Amino acid sequence: MYAFEYARPQTLKDAAAVLRKNVDAKLLAGGQSLVQALRLRLANVPMLVDLGAIPELTGIRVANNVVSIGAMTRHAEVAAAREVQRAIPALARLAGGIGDRQVRNLGTLGGSLAHADPGADYPAAVLGLGANIVTNKREIPADKFFLGLFETALKPGEIIVQVDFPQPLRAGYAKFRNPASRFAMVGVFVADTTSGVRVAVTGAGASAFRVKRMERVLAKDFTAGAIEKIVVPAEGLNSDIHAAADYRAHLVTVVAQRAVEAAARL
User: Fold this and answer.
1) 263 and 129 Cβ atoms separated by less than 8 Å
2) Class of 1-53 in CATH
């Protein structure tokens, strides 16, 4: 691990001030990805700004059919929250299936989104539910947030404050997990919302993406069988030691069907 300076601001305003003075500083949320990169010397940062002491970034609130979750809220807290279980049970189940117990008790919603790992679960929920990512400077619609591999629309000095999830009519999430890391080799979040059906995929590509063809079909017939023959092109999908691109393309359809079935059960 390389040497670095450390700051632990007590308010969001103080954190923003630290970032303005230290443009190369990195934000520390749950640390499940960044700390490992530091330990292995895969990352070398001049300063870490720990967000763990800022109460403004935690908590879960439900109002006007919107579930607002603070950026520093742990995965385990989302999974256990009765208000999330009632309003968006698929989101609670997704959070409960992230990593292992240690990851769920340390990892945070905001950290996961800012890191934008291609195999992370939360991006599928954010995109599938059409959520808004609220930062200290603006609101970013989910459709404009994920830009590519580990790349988001966040700008320097921008801090995720909370994520606003609109409550769907029904929703489901399913994933084909890596047996070791439990990351999604392919994960699909399907949501039937007041503005239409949304199908979001994680794990298959460089970042989360929607499958518009499935959305159009499910809007007319919200059943697993309706999308059985839809084939997602393998071009541009991830290919690694765990699964080739064409296999991931096949998995998208299979897992999407399971997500639709899960939505029907919840």
Assistant:
1) no
2) alpha beta
